[in-house]
Amino acid sequence: MTEPLDLVIIGAGLSGIGAACRYVTEFPDSRYTILEARDAIGGTWDLFRYPGIRSDSDMLTLGYDFRPWPGAKTLAEGPAIRNYVRETAREYGVDAHIQFDSRVVAMDFSSQDDLWTLTVETDGKTRSIEARFVLSCAGYYRYDKGHDPDFKGRDDFQGDIIHPQFWPEEFDYAGKRIAVIGSGATAVTLVPELAKTAAHVVQVQRTPSYVASIPSEDPVVKLTSKIMPKRMSFALNRWKNRKLAGSVYRRAKAKPAKVRANIRKRTLKALGRDYPVDIHFNPPYDPWDQRLCLTKDDEYFDAIRKGRASVVTARIDRFTPDGLRMSDGSPYEFDVIVTATGLEANFGSNFAVSVDGELQDYSTKFTYRGVMTTDVPNLVDVLGYTNASWTLRADLTSRWFVRVRKHMKAHGFTRVVADPPKDGVRNPATDFQAGYIARVLDRLPSQGERLPWRNVQNYKHDCDTLIKGPLQDDALRFSGPEDRSESRSITAEAAE
Fold first, then answer.
1. What's the pLDDT at 493?
2. Helix, strand or coil for residue 21?
3. Among 109, 278, 297, 435, which is least packed by CB within 10 angstroms?
4. pLDDT at 315 (0 to 100)
Protein backbone atom coordinates (compact mmCIF):
# COMPACT_ATOMS: atom_id res chain seq x y z
CA MET A 1 0.00 0.00 0.00
CA THR A 2 1.29 3.47 -0.93
CA GLU A 3 1.35 5.93 1.96
CA PRO A 4 -1.17 8.76 1.37
CA LEU A 5 0.29 12.13 0.47
CA ASP A 6 0.06 14.98 2.94
CA LEU A 7 -1.11 17.37 0.26
CA VAL A 8 -2.20 17.54 -3.36
CA ILE A 9 -2.12 20.94 -5.07
CA ILE A 10 -4.26 21.12 -8.20
CA GLY A 11 -2.78 23.44 -10.80
CA ALA A 12 0.76 24.65 -11.60
CA GLY A 13 -0.14 28.22 -12.47
CA LEU A 14 0.60 31.41 -10.57
CA SER A 15 -1.55 30.35 -7.59
CA GLY A 16 -0.44 26.72 -7.46
CA ILE A 17 3.26 27.45 -7.61
CA GLY A 18 2.89 30.20 -5.01
CA ALA A 19 0.99 27.86 -2.70
CA ALA A 20 3.61 25.14 -3.13
CA CYS A 21 6.42 27.55 -2.28
CA ARG A 22 4.61 28.69 0.87
CA TYR A 23 3.94 25.10 1.89
CA VAL A 24 7.40 23.65 1.26
CA THR A 25 9.03 26.52 3.14
CA GLU A 26 7.11 25.55 6.30
CA PHE A 27 6.97 21.76 5.74
CA PRO A 28 10.14 20.84 3.84
CA ASP A 29 9.79 17.12 4.61
CA SER A 30 6.14 16.84 3.65
CA ARG A 31 5.00 14.44 0.94
CA TYR A 32 3.09 16.41 -1.66
CA THR A 33 2.51 16.67 -5.38
CA ILE A 34 1.19 19.22 -7.86
CA LEU A 35 -1.22 17.92 -10.48
CA GLU A 36 -1.22 19.94 -13.69
CA ALA A 37 -3.71 19.10 -16.44
CA ARG A 38 -1.55 20.63 -19.16
CA ASP A 39 2.07 19.95 -20.06
CA ALA A 40 3.66 23.14 -18.74
CA ILE A 41 4.03 25.44 -15.75
CA GLY A 42 2.30 28.80 -15.92
CA GLY A 43 -1.47 28.29 -16.08
CA THR A 44 -3.09 31.30 -17.74
CA TRP A 45 0.28 32.73 -18.66
CA ASP A 46 1.24 29.64 -20.61
CA LEU A 47 -2.16 28.96 -22.16
CA PHE A 48 -2.88 32.42 -23.56
CA ARG A 49 -0.62 33.32 -26.47
CA TYR A 50 -2.60 36.02 -28.29
CA PRO A 51 -0.73 39.14 -29.51
CA GLY A 52 0.06 41.58 -26.73
CA ILE A 53 -1.00 39.26 -23.89
CA ARG A 54 -0.10 40.95 -20.60
CA SER A 55 -1.22 41.40 -17.02
CA ASP A 56 -4.14 43.62 -16.11
CA SER A 57 -2.81 44.16 -12.58
CA ASP A 58 0.45 45.80 -11.56
CA MET A 59 3.26 43.30 -11.25
CA LEU A 60 4.37 44.34 -7.77
CA THR A 61 1.09 42.92 -6.42
CA LEU A 62 0.50 40.24 -9.06
CA GLY A 63 3.96 38.84 -8.32
CA TYR A 64 4.88 37.02 -5.11
CA ASP A 65 5.90 39.03 -2.07
CA PHE A 66 8.43 36.30 -1.16
CA ARG A 67 10.09 36.65 -4.57
CA PRO A 68 9.82 40.25 -5.82
CA TRP A 69 8.98 40.82 -9.48
CA PRO A 70 12.31 41.67 -11.15
CA GLY A 71 11.09 43.77 -14.08
CA ALA A 72 10.54 47.53 -14.31
CA LYS A 73 7.23 47.43 -16.18
CA THR A 74 3.97 48.11 -14.36
CA LEU A 75 2.07 45.69 -16.63
CA ALA A 76 4.16 42.78 -17.89
CA GLU A 77 3.86 40.66 -21.03
CA GLY A 78 2.64 37.09 -20.78
CA PRO A 79 5.96 35.39 -21.64
CA ALA A 80 7.76 37.35 -18.92
CA ILE A 81 5.15 36.33 -16.32
CA ARG A 82 5.35 32.70 -17.46
CA ASN A 83 9.14 32.73 -17.05
CA TYR A 84 8.80 34.32 -13.62
CA VAL A 85 6.48 31.54 -12.43
CA ARG A 86 8.77 28.85 -13.85
CA GLU A 87 11.89 30.38 -12.30
CA THR A 88 10.13 30.62 -8.93
CA ALA A 89 9.19 26.93 -9.14
CA ARG A 90 12.80 25.99 -9.90
CA GLU A 91 14.23 28.20 -7.16
CA TYR A 92 12.01 26.60 -4.50
CA GLY A 93 12.38 23.10 -5.93
CA VAL A 94 8.65 22.60 -6.34
CA ASP A 95 8.97 21.92 -10.08
CA ALA A 96 10.27 18.43 -9.22
CA HIS A 97 6.91 17.66 -7.58
CA ILE A 98 4.73 18.42 -10.62
CA GLN A 99 2.90 15.67 -12.45
CA PHE A 100 2.05 17.04 -15.90
CA ASP A 101 -0.81 15.91 -18.14
CA SER A 102 -2.63 14.90 -14.97
CA ARG A 103 -6.22 16.12 -14.96
CA VAL A 104 -8.34 15.64 -11.85
CA VAL A 105 -11.74 14.34 -12.91
CA ALA A 106 -13.21 13.43 -9.51
CA MET A 107 -12.50 13.58 -5.78
CA ASP A 108 -14.10 11.67 -2.92
CA PHE A 109 -13.50 12.29 0.80
CA SER A 110 -13.68 9.38 3.23
CA SER A 111 -14.94 10.47 6.66
CA GLN A 112 -13.77 7.17 8.11
CA ASP A 113 -10.14 7.68 7.05
CA ASP A 114 -10.05 11.48 6.67
CA LEU A 115 -8.57 11.03 3.22
CA TRP A 116 -9.28 12.34 -0.25
CA THR A 117 -9.11 9.91 -3.15
CA LEU A 118 -8.48 11.78 -6.37
CA THR A 119 -9.21 10.19 -9.74
CA VAL A 120 -6.60 11.50 -12.16
CA GLU A 121 -6.67 11.10 -15.94
CA THR A 122 -3.60 10.95 -18.18
CA ASP A 123 -3.79 10.01 -21.86
CA GLY A 124 -7.28 8.57 -21.39
CA LYS A 125 -6.24 6.33 -18.51
CA THR A 126 -7.15 6.96 -14.87
CA ARG A 127 -5.34 6.34 -11.62
CA SER A 128 -6.04 7.12 -7.96
CA ILE A 129 -4.08 9.29 -5.55
CA GLU A 130 -4.79 9.50 -1.82
CA ALA A 131 -4.09 12.67 0.13
CA ARG A 132 -4.95 14.15 3.50
CA PHE A 133 -5.53 17.63 2.11
CA VAL A 134 -6.24 19.24 -1.23
CA LEU A 135 -5.47 22.80 -2.28
CA SER A 136 -7.48 23.64 -5.38
CA CYS A 137 -5.52 26.18 -7.44
CA ALA A 138 -7.27 25.20 -10.66
CA GLY A 139 -8.50 28.73 -11.32
CA TYR A 140 -11.94 29.97 -12.19
CA TYR A 141 -12.37 29.12 -15.87
CA ARG A 142 -12.17 26.20 -18.27
CA TYR A 143 -8.85 25.81 -20.06
CA ASP A 144 -10.36 23.63 -22.77
CA LYS A 145 -13.18 25.97 -23.75
CA GLY A 146 -13.68 29.73 -24.00
CA HIS A 147 -17.01 31.54 -23.99
CA ASP A 148 -17.91 31.67 -27.67
CA PRO A 149 -21.54 32.69 -28.35
CA ASP A 150 -23.35 31.00 -31.22
CA PHE A 151 -23.62 33.95 -33.61
CA LYS A 152 -26.19 33.63 -36.38
CA GLY A 153 -24.57 32.87 -39.74
CA ARG A 154 -21.19 32.09 -38.20
CA ASP A 155 -20.49 29.33 -40.72
CA ASP A 156 -21.17 31.72 -43.60
CA PHE A 157 -18.08 33.83 -42.89
CA GLN A 158 -15.31 33.08 -45.41
CA GLY A 159 -12.41 34.43 -43.33
CA ASP A 160 -10.70 33.28 -40.14
CA ILE A 161 -12.54 33.15 -36.81
CA ILE A 162 -10.27 33.03 -33.76
CA HIS A 163 -10.93 32.90 -30.02
CA PRO A 164 -8.02 34.53 -28.12
CA GLN A 165 -7.79 31.58 -25.73
CA PHE A 166 -6.71 29.44 -28.69
CA TRP A 167 -4.69 31.83 -30.83
CA PRO A 168 -3.00 29.95 -33.71
CA GLU A 169 0.77 29.91 -33.51
CA GLU A 170 2.45 32.10 -36.15
CA PHE A 171 -0.87 33.43 -37.45
CA ASP A 172 -0.14 36.25 -39.91
CA TYR A 173 -2.62 39.11 -39.60
CA ALA A 174 -0.52 41.82 -41.22
CA GLY A 175 -2.45 43.93 -43.72
CA LYS A 176 -5.79 42.35 -42.81
CA ARG A 177 -9.08 43.91 -41.80
CA ILE A 178 -9.84 42.62 -38.31
CA ALA A 179 -12.90 42.70 -36.07
CA VAL A 180 -12.39 42.19 -32.35
CA ILE A 181 -15.72 41.32 -30.74
CA GLY A 182 -15.72 42.25 -27.06
CA SER A 183 -15.10 45.08 -24.64
CA GLY A 184 -13.10 43.50 -21.84
CA ALA A 185 -9.42 43.43 -20.94
CA THR A 186 -8.56 41.01 -23.74
CA ALA A 187 -10.10 43.23 -26.41
CA VAL A 188 -8.43 46.35 -25.01
CA THR A 189 -5.09 44.51 -25.12
CA LEU A 190 -5.57 43.05 -28.58
CA VAL A 191 -6.76 46.16 -30.42
CA PRO A 192 -3.57 48.28 -30.19
CA GLU A 193 -1.30 45.30 -30.75
CA LEU A 194 -3.13 44.08 -33.86
CA ALA A 195 -3.40 47.66 -35.14
CA LYS A 196 0.39 47.90 -35.43
CA THR A 197 0.40 45.83 -38.64
CA ALA A 198 -3.25 45.20 -39.59
CA ALA A 199 -4.95 47.21 -42.32
CA HIS A 200 -7.49 48.30 -39.74
CA VAL A 201 -8.99 46.97 -36.50
CA VAL A 202 -12.59 47.48 -35.45
CA GLN A 203 -13.60 46.74 -31.89
CA VAL A 204 -17.22 45.60 -32.00
CA GLN A 205 -18.90 45.84 -28.62
CA ARG A 206 -22.44 45.35 -27.44
CA THR A 207 -21.77 47.16 -24.15
CA PRO A 208 -18.96 49.67 -23.44
CA SER A 209 -16.39 49.32 -20.68
CA TYR A 210 -14.38 51.81 -18.66
CA VAL A 211 -10.80 52.08 -19.93
CA ALA A 212 -8.06 53.76 -17.92
CA SER A 213 -4.46 54.40 -18.89
CA ILE A 214 -1.47 53.85 -16.61
CA PRO A 215 2.25 54.44 -17.27
CA SER A 216 4.21 51.39 -18.40
CA GLU A 217 6.86 52.24 -15.79
CA ASP A 218 6.10 53.59 -12.33
CA PRO A 219 8.17 56.76 -11.67
CA VAL A 220 8.07 56.14 -7.90
CA VAL A 221 9.50 52.66 -8.42
CA LYS A 222 12.25 54.06 -10.65
CA LEU A 223 13.17 56.63 -8.00
CA THR A 224 13.08 54.39 -4.94
CA SER A 225 15.03 51.64 -6.70
CA LYS A 226 17.91 54.08 -7.04
CA ILE A 227 17.97 55.32 -3.45
CA MET A 228 16.78 52.30 -1.44
CA PRO A 229 17.85 48.68 -1.01
CA LYS A 230 15.98 46.46 -3.47
CA ARG A 231 13.86 44.68 -0.88
CA MET A 232 12.88 47.93 0.85
CA SER A 233 11.91 49.56 -2.45
CA PHE A 234 9.80 46.55 -3.36
CA ALA A 235 8.01 46.47 0.00
CA LEU A 236 7.27 50.19 -0.10
CA ASN A 237 5.92 50.18 -3.64
CA ARG A 238 3.91 47.00 -3.19
CA TRP A 239 2.29 48.63 -0.16
CA LYS A 240 1.71 51.81 -2.19
CA ASN A 241 0.11 49.95 -5.10
CA ARG A 242 -2.09 47.90 -2.81
CA LYS A 243 -3.25 51.00 -0.95
CA LEU A 244 -3.85 52.90 -4.18
CA ALA A 245 -5.91 50.09 -5.71
CA GLY A 246 -7.98 49.81 -2.55
CA SER A 247 -8.52 53.55 -2.44
CA VAL A 248 -9.66 53.68 -6.07
CA TYR A 249 -12.10 50.84 -5.50
CA ARG A 250 -13.57 52.34 -2.33
CA ARG A 251 -13.93 55.75 -3.97
CA ALA A 252 -15.67 54.18 -6.96
CA LYS A 253 -18.15 52.49 -4.65
CA ALA A 254 -18.69 55.53 -2.46
CA LYS A 255 -18.88 58.19 -5.18
CA PRO A 256 -19.57 56.43 -8.48
CA ALA A 257 -20.82 59.57 -10.27
CA LYS A 258 -17.63 61.48 -9.53
CA VAL A 259 -15.41 58.58 -10.57
CA ARG A 260 -17.42 58.12 -13.77
CA ALA A 261 -17.04 61.83 -14.56
CA ASN A 262 -13.31 61.67 -13.94
CA ILE A 263 -12.86 58.66 -16.22
CA ARG A 264 -14.93 60.40 -18.91
CA LYS A 265 -12.74 63.51 -18.65
CA ARG A 266 -9.55 61.46 -19.04
CA THR A 267 -11.00 59.52 -21.97
CA LEU A 268 -11.94 62.76 -23.76
CA LYS A 269 -8.43 64.07 -23.20
CA ALA A 270 -6.95 60.92 -24.71
CA LEU A 271 -9.28 60.74 -27.73
CA GLY A 272 -10.11 64.37 -28.40
CA ARG A 273 -13.11 66.49 -27.48
CA ASP A 274 -14.98 65.61 -30.69
CA TYR A 275 -14.86 61.87 -30.06
CA PRO A 276 -18.27 60.30 -29.19
CA VAL A 277 -17.18 59.13 -25.76
CA ASP A 278 -20.75 58.91 -24.49
CA ILE A 279 -21.54 56.30 -27.13
CA HIS A 280 -18.45 54.10 -26.97
CA PHE A 281 -17.14 54.59 -23.40
CA ASN A 282 -20.24 55.12 -21.27
CA PRO A 283 -21.11 51.79 -19.61
CA PRO A 284 -24.61 51.25 -18.14
CA TYR A 285 -23.01 50.20 -14.84
CA ASP A 286 -20.93 52.10 -12.26
CA PRO A 287 -17.12 51.95 -12.13
CA TRP A 288 -15.82 48.74 -10.54
CA ASP A 289 -19.13 46.91 -10.80
CA GLN A 290 -16.91 45.19 -13.32
CA ARG A 291 -13.12 45.40 -13.54
CA LEU A 292 -11.67 48.50 -15.14
CA CYS A 293 -9.76 47.79 -18.34
CA LEU A 294 -6.21 49.09 -18.29
CA THR A 295 -4.08 50.27 -21.19
CA LYS A 296 -0.46 51.28 -20.85
CA ASP A 297 0.81 54.66 -21.97
CA ASP A 298 -2.46 55.45 -23.80
CA GLU A 299 -1.62 52.88 -26.52
CA TYR A 300 -5.25 51.79 -26.91
CA PHE A 301 -6.47 55.37 -27.23
CA ASP A 302 -3.57 56.24 -29.56
CA ALA A 303 -4.56 53.46 -31.98
CA ILE A 304 -8.08 54.91 -32.16
CA ARG A 305 -7.03 58.54 -32.33
CA LYS A 306 -4.54 57.87 -35.13
CA GLY A 307 -7.11 55.96 -37.20
CA ARG A 308 -5.50 52.52 -36.99
CA ALA A 309 -8.48 51.26 -34.97
CA SER A 310 -12.09 52.24 -34.39
CA VAL A 311 -14.99 51.26 -32.16
CA VAL A 312 -18.51 50.18 -33.11
CA THR A 313 -21.06 49.94 -30.30
CA ALA A 314 -24.03 47.93 -31.50
CA ARG A 315 -25.58 44.49 -31.44
CA ILE A 316 -24.46 42.01 -34.08
CA ASP A 317 -27.31 40.77 -36.23
CA ARG A 318 -25.32 38.05 -37.95
CA PHE A 319 -22.08 36.97 -39.56
CA THR A 320 -22.03 37.33 -43.35
CA PRO A 321 -19.70 35.81 -45.95
CA ASP A 322 -17.73 39.09 -45.97
CA GLY A 323 -17.88 40.07 -42.29
CA LEU A 324 -20.61 41.29 -39.94
CA ARG A 325 -24.00 42.93 -40.16
CA MET A 326 -25.17 45.01 -37.23
CA SER A 327 -28.71 45.13 -35.87
CA ASP A 328 -29.30 48.46 -37.65
CA GLY A 329 -28.40 46.82 -40.97
CA SER A 330 -24.91 48.35 -41.27
CA PRO A 331 -22.49 45.97 -43.02
CA TYR A 332 -18.78 45.66 -42.19
CA GLU A 333 -16.23 43.70 -44.18
CA PHE A 334 -13.44 41.79 -42.46
CA ASP A 335 -10.78 39.21 -43.22
CA VAL A 336 -10.47 38.04 -39.61
CA ILE A 337 -12.97 38.01 -36.74
CA VAL A 338 -11.58 37.63 -33.22
CA THR A 339 -14.20 36.56 -30.68
CA ALA A 340 -12.83 38.13 -27.49
CA THR A 341 -16.11 37.23 -25.84
CA GLY A 342 -14.77 36.00 -22.54
CA LEU A 343 -14.12 32.95 -20.45
CA GLU A 344 -16.19 29.92 -19.59
CA ALA A 345 -16.19 30.17 -15.80
CA ASN A 346 -16.04 26.99 -13.77
CA PHE A 347 -15.79 27.98 -10.09
CA GLY A 348 -15.66 24.99 -7.78
CA SER A 349 -16.75 22.56 -10.46
CA ASN A 350 -13.63 21.78 -12.44
CA PHE A 351 -14.13 18.23 -11.21
CA ALA A 352 -16.77 16.20 -9.37
CA VAL A 353 -16.42 16.53 -5.58
CA SER A 354 -18.00 13.91 -3.30
CA VAL A 355 -18.02 13.22 0.42
CA ASP A 356 -18.49 9.57 1.36
CA GLY A 357 -19.69 8.90 -2.16
CA GLU A 358 -22.30 11.68 -2.15
CA LEU A 359 -21.79 14.23 -4.92
CA GLN A 360 -21.61 17.76 -3.50
CA ASP A 361 -23.80 20.43 -5.07
CA TYR A 362 -21.92 23.69 -4.58
CA SER A 363 -25.03 25.77 -5.22
CA THR A 364 -26.49 24.46 -1.94
CA LYS A 365 -23.37 25.40 0.05
CA PHE A 366 -21.95 28.54 1.61
CA THR A 367 -18.51 30.02 1.25
CA TYR A 368 -16.42 30.24 4.40
CA ARG A 369 -14.33 33.43 4.25
CA GLY A 370 -13.82 32.68 0.57
CA VAL A 371 -11.33 29.90 1.39
CA MET A 372 -13.50 26.82 1.99
CA THR A 373 -16.92 25.51 1.04
CA THR A 374 -19.17 24.46 3.90
CA ASP A 375 -19.54 20.73 4.62
CA VAL A 376 -16.54 19.85 2.43
CA PRO A 377 -13.62 18.81 4.70
CA ASN A 378 -9.89 19.27 4.10
CA LEU A 379 -10.34 21.13 0.80
CA VAL A 380 -9.19 24.73 0.41
CA ASP A 381 -10.12 26.81 -2.63
CA VAL A 382 -7.39 29.24 -3.66
CA LEU A 383 -8.95 32.16 -5.53
CA GLY A 384 -7.97 35.79 -6.04
CA TYR A 385 -9.66 39.14 -5.74
CA THR A 386 -12.14 40.51 -8.24
CA ASN A 387 -11.35 44.10 -7.23
CA ALA A 388 -7.56 43.93 -6.92
CA SER A 389 -4.60 41.78 -7.91
CA TRP A 390 -5.40 38.06 -7.99
CA THR A 391 -2.23 37.05 -6.15
CA LEU A 392 -2.88 39.21 -3.09
CA ARG A 393 -5.86 37.09 -2.10
CA ALA A 394 -4.47 33.78 -3.38
CA ASP A 395 -1.34 34.20 -1.28
CA LEU A 396 -3.33 35.04 1.86
CA THR A 397 -5.30 31.83 1.35
CA SER A 398 -2.10 29.79 1.03
CA ARG A 399 -0.70 31.36 4.18
CA TRP A 400 -3.97 30.65 6.01
CA PHE A 401 -3.74 27.01 4.96
CA VAL A 402 -0.21 26.80 6.37
CA ARG A 403 -1.55 28.18 9.69
CA VAL A 404 -4.30 25.56 9.68
CA ARG A 405 -1.88 22.70 9.05
CA LYS A 406 0.45 23.84 11.82
CA HIS A 407 -2.48 24.05 14.22
CA MET A 408 -3.73 20.61 13.25
CA LYS A 409 -0.32 18.98 13.57
CA ALA A 410 0.17 20.54 16.98
CA HIS A 411 -3.17 19.20 18.28
CA GLY A 412 -3.40 15.89 16.43
CA PHE A 413 -6.35 16.95 14.29
CA THR A 414 -6.96 15.17 11.00
CA ARG A 415 -10.02 16.99 9.74
CA VAL A 416 -11.18 20.57 9.37
CA VAL A 417 -14.60 21.50 8.03
CA ALA A 418 -16.65 24.69 7.85
CA ASP A 419 -20.25 24.51 9.04
CA PRO A 420 -23.04 26.49 7.31
CA PRO A 421 -24.77 29.37 9.14
CA LYS A 422 -27.67 28.24 11.32
CA ASP A 423 -29.99 30.99 10.06
CA GLY A 424 -29.67 29.70 6.50
CA VAL A 425 -29.91 33.21 5.01
CA ARG A 426 -28.44 33.26 1.52
CA ASN A 427 -26.86 36.10 -0.40
CA PRO A 428 -25.28 35.97 -3.88
CA ALA A 429 -21.70 34.75 -4.00
CA THR A 430 -20.61 38.19 -5.24
CA ASP A 431 -22.00 41.52 -6.41
CA PHE A 432 -19.39 41.62 -9.17
CA GLN A 433 -21.28 41.93 -12.46
CA ALA A 434 -18.84 40.51 -14.99
CA GLY A 435 -20.52 38.34 -17.61
CA TYR A 436 -18.42 35.26 -16.89
CA ILE A 437 -19.62 35.32 -13.28
CA ALA A 438 -23.24 36.15 -14.10
CA ARG A 439 -23.40 33.05 -16.32
CA VAL A 440 -22.55 30.71 -13.41
CA LEU A 441 -23.87 32.63 -10.40
CA ASP A 442 -26.63 30.08 -9.80
CA ARG A 443 -24.00 27.34 -9.45
CA LEU A 444 -21.81 29.10 -6.89
CA PRO A 445 -21.85 28.74 -3.09
CA SER A 446 -23.82 31.50 -1.37
CA GLN A 447 -22.58 34.06 1.09
CA GLY A 448 -24.22 34.26 4.48
CA GLU A 449 -25.68 37.28 6.21
CA ARG A 450 -22.61 37.82 8.37
CA LEU A 451 -19.02 36.77 8.94
CA PRO A 452 -17.44 34.25 8.68
CA TRP A 453 -19.71 33.18 5.83
CA ARG A 454 -18.81 36.21 3.74
CA ASN A 455 -15.96 37.09 1.42
CA VAL A 456 -15.51 40.83 1.87
CA GLN A 457 -12.89 41.39 -0.87
CA ASN A 458 -10.75 43.60 1.36
CA TYR A 459 -7.03 42.96 1.82
CA LYS A 460 -6.65 44.54 5.27
CA HIS A 461 -9.69 42.69 6.61
CA ASP A 462 -8.40 39.42 5.16
CA CYS A 463 -4.95 39.96 6.70
CA ASP A 464 -6.56 40.61 10.08
CA THR A 465 -8.81 37.54 9.93
CA LEU A 466 -6.89 34.97 7.89
CA ILE A 467 -3.35 35.70 9.06
CA LYS A 468 -3.58 37.46 12.44
CA GLY A 469 -6.97 36.45 13.81
CA PRO A 470 -7.87 33.26 15.73
CA LEU A 471 -8.38 30.16 13.61
CA GLN A 472 -11.46 28.83 15.35
CA ASP A 473 -14.75 30.69 15.15
CA ASP A 474 -18.49 30.05 14.80
CA ALA A 475 -18.04 27.84 11.77
CA LEU A 476 -14.61 26.19 11.56
CA ARG A 477 -14.53 22.79 13.23
CA PHE A 478 -11.38 20.74 13.89
CA SER A 479 -11.42 17.09 14.89
CA GLY A 480 -9.28 13.98 15.20
CA PRO A 481 -9.97 10.25 15.26
CA GLU A 482 -10.54 10.31 19.03
CA ASP A 483 -13.22 13.00 18.76
CA ARG A 484 -15.20 10.96 16.28
CA SER A 485 -14.78 7.74 18.26
CA GLU A 486 -16.26 9.50 21.30
CA SER A 487 -19.06 10.93 19.17
CA ARG A 488 -19.92 7.51 17.73
CA SER A 489 -19.90 6.02 21.20
CA ILE A 490 -22.33 8.64 22.51
CA THR A 491 -24.59 8.13 19.48
CA ALA A 492 -24.60 4.36 20.04
CA GLU A 493 -25.48 4.76 23.72
CA ALA A 494 -28.34 7.09 22.86
CA ALA A 495 -29.66 4.58 20.33
CA GLU A 496 -29.69 1.82 22.95
1. 34
2. helix
3. 278
4. 95
